[in-house]
Amino acid sequence: MNLMSLFTEPEKPSSYWAGKYKIPWDDPAFSSRMLAEHLSQDHDMASRRAEKIDLHVEMIHKTVMNGLAGKILDLGCGPGFYAERLAALGHTVHGIDFSPASIAYAVENTTHPDLCSYVHGDVRTEEFGSGYDLAMILFGEFNTFPPSEIGAVLKRMHAALGDGGRVLLEVQEYEAIKRRGGESHTWFQSKSGLFSGRPHLFLTHNDWDDDQSVTREQFVVIDAESMDVSRYCCTTQAYTTDEYMAIVTGVGFRNVTIGPAWGDANDSTQSSMRMVQGER
Ligand SMILES: C[S@@+](CC[C@H](N)C(=O)[O-])C[C@H]1O[C@@H](n2cnc3c(N)ncnc32)[C@H](O)[C@@H]1O
Fold first, then answer.
1. How far is the CA of 46 from the centre of ligand 1 (A)?
2. 145-149, 228-232, 267-271 — which is least confidently predicted?
3. Maximum Cα–Cα distance for the chain, whole Å?
4. What's the CA gap between 88 and 23, in Å, rounded?
């Protein structure tokens, strides 16, 4: 492979959207390494630290569910941190995620098998079921799908809710996504890391596409022994507040609100988020 072409092809993020636009959450080895990041209490990378999730769950219970036990759909549920806490408050939760390690962890560690069900599946194709009081996608994952795909998921979330059921989307703020696209390129060497369990060089390259309002983060792993090159990409679609409003009302939700993130405004994992809510 010509190393000079690593970051120049394809020129537009849209070229990736036919396939490779996400980090490989669904790859078994990657998902095992990612599970360690979900569980870590040293950072808020894959999932937030426990005390922040506690606060979110309290907000969901009190302000979204009005303190009443209900039926909740958690899309991209990860290892079940939200589901377990919500079940402890009496909610029934159905979690779907395509990370094999996260779903295995959730199933093995559930303390509420009667209230929590977990399915290993892709939210773009997996059946959601029906009659939910709340359907949610948390921690900014909404923005990592192409608009057409997340639009279709949102439509199915709407259909899966009972009358008066609510949607909760924790989405990323436009400027925060744009800023990430402008971050410096980096490289480092590692004996073992998230993208490879073997010694490797790790290079990152970010760019922002103003025409499409998209940040593309590219990750390149060069294996230290074999020199094999693996490339990954995370494409994040930015939307303005008006665009979020149009998308959510466009699939039929009423009384849509877009509020600030929950928690400490000085915490960048919170301040870069917005809470979108609506009612069926
Ligand atoms: C940032 S993590 C958040 C996990 C969890 N919601 C939390 O906050 O702890 C995003 C999750 O979405 C899942 N995910 C991404 N795309 C998905 C898809 N197409 N189908 C199912 N799960 C998906 C990933 O596997 C990952 O567990």
1. 9
2. 267-271
3. 59
4. 31
Long-range pairs, 186-195, Cβ under 8 A, ≥24: 189/224, 193/33, 194/30, 194/33, 194/34, 194/37, 195/30, 195/33, 195/219, 195/221, 195/230, 195/232
Residues 163-208: tens digit of each pLDDT: 999 999 999 999 999 999 999 999 999 999 999 999 999 999 999 9
CATH code assigned to 28-173+240-279? 3.40.50.150
Enumerate the CATH 3.40.50.150 domain ranges in the chain, comma separated: 28-173+240-279
Identify the pLDDT of residue 19.
Answer: 58
270 pLDDT band, cuts 50/70/90, is confident
Cβ atoms of 150 and 89 within 8 Å: the answer is no
pTM of the model: 0.95
Handedness of CA 19, 20, 23, 28 (dihedral sign): positive
Question: What residue owns the CA closest to ligand 1's atom 27?
Answer: 78
Q: How far apart are CA 18 and CA 171, in angstroms?
A: 23
For a substitution probing ligand 1, which of 99, 118, 156, 169 has the most ligand atoms within 8 Å of its CB? 99
SS3 call for 130? coil
Q: Is the pLDDT of residue 74 over 80?
A: yes
